[in-house]
Amino acid sequence: MTALPNEEQHLEEMARDVLSSDGGHITFFDLSWEDVIVPKILSNFTLKELFTFRCCSQATKRLVELALEKLVEIDFAGNNSVNIEHTFKVLGENCKRLENLQLARCNWMTDDLLLPILARNKHLKIVNLNECVNITPLALQPIIIECKDLRVLKLSKCQWLTTGAVDALTLHQSNLEEFDISHCAAIGERCLIIFFRKLNKLT
């Protein structure tokens, strides 16, 4: 019979401790970060809003880092704005659950920027590197070998693409459903015949 009053008293004491810890006020940061702030509030922010919020304080920086860890999609296609490399570097340091990476026509993209984010996101399903002219086949290595959930890979107008990279893709990837290598002059007919014979899921 005394269990309920004792529990209520304990909850009251906990609430009193929280209220007294900040002069009698509960702040935004007293809310549960994992259960409330990140999934219920920050999940509605655009990427630009997250980065603006990130600059407010050390606490907001940590909050945004938690939110970035849970991102499943990055769409920078055609985005060549000033300082975009810095933004992408921050994403590369924090994102861990990406499934969709859209980087078509990103002229600033290099191996050094791309490799860290690929190393932390091995469950990518869609990767679009169409017209990314400043990366090399080295950047494809983690995609080919480690991204076993890959379904869509777009490399249109990537003149750096080699037959060796496509051969490696044929060896390691068997579940691709869409593969775009249009306007890649270095890819020969023999390479394509072998590739399409093995990957019969392509549409």
UniProtKB/TrEMBL annotation:
InterPro entries: LRR_dom_sf (IPR032675)
Gene Ontology, cellular component aspect: SCF ubiquitin ligase complex
SUPFAM superfamilies linked: RNI-like
A GO BP entry: SCF-dependent proteasomal ubiquitin-dependent protein catabolic process
Identification of the protein by name: Leucine Rich repeat protein
Lineage summary: Eukaryota, Metazoa, Ecdysozoa, Arthropoda, Hexapoda
